[in-house]
Design goal:
The protein has about 110 residues and is of the alpha+beta class. Helices cover about 65% and strands about 15% of the residues. It contains 5 helices and 3 strands, in the order ααβααββα. The protein starts with 9 loop residues before the first helix and ends with a helix.
């Protein structure tokens, strides 16, 4: 089965490590492209390409401030990723609780 395009949905988009880095940086607050470029040390064309993908799948929003384009996380777009990752958080919480209970029984 062919892999879906990295631009088709949020999950495919974050398969790219640089996009995850951009999202992590934007989690700190709204930023212009130049600031993202300096902080992450990617070239401006690369940053713009990745931001366009993140924007197209709804993980980031953009607003114009004069000549600058400011990017920020789109909370609604991130929600499915958060919910999916939460499944694994619950799994590991249950696993740790089981280990703790077993250790307490054995002591």
């Amino acid at each position: 089965m062919a892999r879906a395009s990295t631009t088709s949905d949020a999950f495919n988009a974050i398969a790219e490590p640089r996009r995850r880095e951009i999202l992590s940086f934007l989690a700190l607050g709204e930023r212009p492209v130049g600031e993202i470029e300096l902080a992450l040390r990617f070239g401006q064309p690369s940053i713009s390409k990745h931001l366009r993908v993140l924007l197209n799948v709804g993980l980031v929003d953009v607003r114009r401030d004069g000549r600058r384009m400011l990017y920020r996380i789109n909370a609604e777009g991130i929600k499915p990723l958060h919910e999916w990752a939460g499944t694994f958080e619950r799994y590991w919480r249950q696993q740790l609780t089981s280990v703790k209970e077993r250790a307490e029984r054995e002591s």
